[in-house]
Fold this sequence. Notes:
CATH class of the largest domain in chain B: Mainly Alpha
Largest interface: A-B, 62 and 71 residues
Distance between the termini of chain B: 38 Å
Radius of gyration of chain B: 20 Å
Number of strands of chain A: 9
CATH architecture of the largest domain in chain A: 3-Layer(aba) Sandwich
CATH topology of the largest domain in chain B: Fumarate Reductase Iron-sulfur Protein, Chain B, domain 2
Order of helices and strands of chain A: EEHEHHEHHHHEHEHHEHHEHHEHH
CATH topology of the largest domain in chain A: Rossmann fold
Number of domains of chain A: 2
Largest sheet of chain B: none
Structural class of chain A: alpha/beta
Oligomer: heterodimer
Helix content of chain A: 40-55%
Strand content of chain A: 5-15%
Low-confidence stretches of chain A: 1-7
Helix content of chain B: 55-70%
Mean pLDDT of chain B: 91
Number of strands of chain B: 0
Amino acid sequence: MSTHMKHNTVEVTNTMSGINLKFAYYPGCSLSGTAVEYGMSTKALCNLLEIELEEIPDWICCGATPAHAIRTLFPIALGARNLALAAKLKMPILTVCAACFNRLKFAAHELKHNSAVREKISQLPELLDGCKVEQLGDINVLHLLSVLHDIYGVERIKGMVKHSLSGLKVACYYGCLLVRPPKVMQFDDPENPQLMDRLIEAIGAETVDWAYKVECCGASLALSRSELVAERVHLILSDAKARGAQVICVACPLCHVNLDVYQVDADAKAGQKHDMPIVYFTQLIALALGASVGEVGLNKHMINPIPVLSAVLKVTG
Amino acid sequence: MSDVVKLTDMRLKEFTAEVERRSGQRISQCYQCGKCSSGCPMAFAMDIDPARIMRLIQLGLRDDVLKSNTIWICAACQTCTTRCPQEVEIAHVMDTLRIMALEAGYTDSERETVEALSQFVENIERRGRVFEPELALRLNIALGRPFKDFGRGLQLFARGKLPMLPEKIKGLKELRSIWEKVKKLERVEGERHVNAHETQHS
């Protein structure tokens, strides 16, 4: 059965091998820099799941937190540009970066519900590259986590596991931007989300119940006030450890940088080694589905996750 | 903070009205439950906690609010906005306050963070996509600490996480002239969400 729908809905085609999904892919800036392994593992995972990703040509930065922190219209203009570029591909947008997901959804939300913003953006036709401003608010922006959970399905992923992560204890860290503000994001329970936990359990691992899954890591303050980030990171890592987690699983490049790259600062601040590997959910799922350590960039972290992962998984180089 | 506040001074109300208008948020609805402050992950580093900032806005104490480090230490995590029982989007009010502080030239309370946010936006405007190594270097030079995080940079480079060249995109020149128009549109109204969040109470 093949169902064709409008560009703002997901086109689901059931094939002999299972399910075929295709998206307009928005990688975001970090995925070619500090989060290069997030991009690698996303591609590896989508290959394994036969999810087709067509990168949006000439996409620009989503603005992340700094753009809306000090500017009014600029962050919406960035989002409008990206939505317009994606509209040409006539597919829903897929992103893995929590900040990109948040900002694209926010722009679409504002363009749909805020007539003053819509009116201003309509004064910039060259920004929209032939697209109508009224179109933009209806473009569907999805995060890979919800695609896997809601469309692909936990059971289907369970059935594809080649190397179970049985025996591994994982703290799933959602951070801020996936879940907040819930009115815009509409992504799981904003105080106690479960979606990533269900997926990590589907590949055999055990998830821990902990207090910091939606607590902020300090975000872009790492650029200017890394000592404050170190304070936050210490609290997050300590709680994960106290609950028995061996790794923290994330879905945001900035969370990853703060928890992994700045972990040494948290160690210095707290006078103790936290020694907590931080991995992306795409890495864990791709590994379980048969990807190699190299394909998912597992060797690119500051805190090496390979020892704890190889103990439960016969991973190949 | 001012010792005596004359609540009959109508000039104070101008600030309250301006913040409400520019943020599109009804700050007068805040009844000081303190939920925003107790859930704020960065409150430990703020000189005035978020609930007190809301109260100071209600009282019209412009300089106390705009000169606080609070507005810059806010990490925009949206926890306060999510939990506010009066549906005040407090994190968005912080956006408005930062912009008003920049307009007033009040940046002394948190110079490093002001510079970091400005450099980040400048990088997007100039390149279309953030080029992380350049952003870090420019920021460190601007803050007079060129070698900060040098060792960290080398470790990232060794792991293939610091690209040497920025990614090129089409239409960058045109985009830059669009950004100038965006700035003009921002200046004309000086407001963001005039009818903000039409859906909020629907």
